[in-house]
């Protein structure tokens, strides 16, 4: 780790004016600094800022510095969010990691984290060896000729399914952005992963009220049961009445360069009965447009199965 200056602002304005790299839980930043992937000269410890509250009185408002473990345990949090958090990292990390930090964590692509290899996200124009190299964990949606790294956050998948927004404070004031629009596809600028502008800070996550999101789940398929990133995951919420799906929200992770919403699957589920055939037909639409790489073609089969598993979980909860 290289030398850096550490400050501890006590107000949001002071943090913004510092133009520093922000440190909250440190569960990603410190790792990347140790690897020399990130080498900030000025780090601002923002843990003293008043951004920790959780309010579920009308929808859900989560302060950016709320810890993942605290949000997962909060009784007003929708199940899909709680389950996504509980399947993220280890208990020790969930006790430290912040909600805002989780949403802007960097990819776990091994090429990105290894400074001895090229990576367009780390060093634009250097190349993407994952396209022809080890790419079992990589994306089948949203990739480009410059990057195929998957988005790492489980929480972001659940929040995108629920149309969450984030509030950002920066030098030009406060703005609100839909989380689904916050993340950028790599295109030919994979180093620009999201719409966080210089000096900006996530202050809050806002989830609109959706009463039927109480009937929701998050299924994560991975190589081992704990402390592992998703091969495929599914965030699903269903509005069910008299055995018929009136509405659905579906987003998936582990398969795309950003949290990936599936509007075609949602449309197929609306008006469908809670039957195996309906689940299979809707889930089959999930792989439309997929571009698998040599080592991750299995995800085109795993994704529909993961969705069907999530739908079955919610069916059992409706009985």
TrEMBL record:
Q: Where is the FAD-binding PCMH-type domain?
A: 1-212
- The transmembrane segments are none
For this protein, the record's Pfam families field holds:
CO_deh_flav_C (PF03450), FAD_binding_5 (PF00941)
Q: Which UniProt keywords apply?
A: Oxidoreductase
Task: Return the InterPro entries for the record.
Answer: CO_DH_flav_C (IPR005107), CO_DH_flav_C_dom_sf (IPR036683), Diverse_Substr_Oxidored (IPR051312), FAD-bd_PCMH (IPR016166), FAD-bd_PCMH-like_sf (IPR036318), FAD-bd_PCMH_sub1 (IPR016167), FAD-bd_PCMH_sub2 (IPR016169), Mopterin_DH_FAD-bd (IPR002346)
Keyword Cell membrane present in the record's keywords: the answer is: no
| Entry GO MF terms | FAD binding; oxidoreductase activity
Q: Does the keyword Oxidoreductase apply?
A: yes
Q: What is this protein called?
A: Xanthine dehydrogenase YagS FAD-binding subunit
């Amino acid at each position: 780790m290289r030398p850096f200056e550490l400050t501890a602002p006590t107000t949001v304005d002071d943090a913004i004016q510092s133009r520093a790299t922000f440190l909250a839980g440190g569960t990603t930043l410190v790792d990347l600094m140790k690897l020399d992937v990130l080498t900030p000269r000025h780090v601002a410890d923002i843990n003293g800022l008043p951004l920790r509250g959780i309010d579920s009185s009308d929808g859900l408002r989560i302060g950016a510095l709320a810890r993942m473990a605290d949000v997962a345990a909060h009784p007003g949090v929708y199940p899909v969010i709680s389950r996504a958090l509980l399947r993220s990292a280890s208990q020790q990390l969930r006790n430290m990691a912040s909600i805002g930090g989780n949403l802007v964590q960097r990819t776990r692509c091994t090429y990105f984290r290894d400074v001895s290899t090229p990576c367009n996200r780390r060093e634009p124009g250097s190349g993407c060896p994952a396209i022809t190299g080890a790419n079992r964990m990589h994306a089948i949606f949203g990739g480009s000729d410059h990057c195929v790294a998957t988005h790492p956050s489980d929480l972001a998948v659940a929040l995108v399914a629920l149309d969450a927004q984030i509030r950002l404070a920066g030098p030009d004031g406060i703005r609100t952005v839909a989380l689904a629009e916050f993340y950028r596809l790599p295109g030919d600028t994979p180093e620009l992963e999201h719409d966080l502008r210089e000096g900006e800070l996530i202050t809050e996550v806002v989830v609109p009220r959706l009463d039927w999101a109480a009937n929701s789940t998050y299924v994560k398929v991975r190589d081992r049961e704990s402390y592992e990133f998703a091969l495929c995951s599914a965030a699903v919420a269903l509005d069910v009445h008299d055995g018929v799906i009136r509405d659905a929200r579906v987003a998936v992770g582990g398969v795309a360069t950003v949290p990936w919403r599936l509007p075609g699957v949602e449309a197929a589920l609306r008006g469908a009965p809670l039957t195996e055939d309906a689940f299979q037909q809707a889930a089959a639409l999930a792989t439309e447009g997929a571009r698998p790489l040599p080592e991750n073609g299995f995800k085109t089969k795993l994704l529909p199965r993961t969705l069907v598993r999530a739908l079955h979980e919610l069916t059992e909860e409706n009985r």
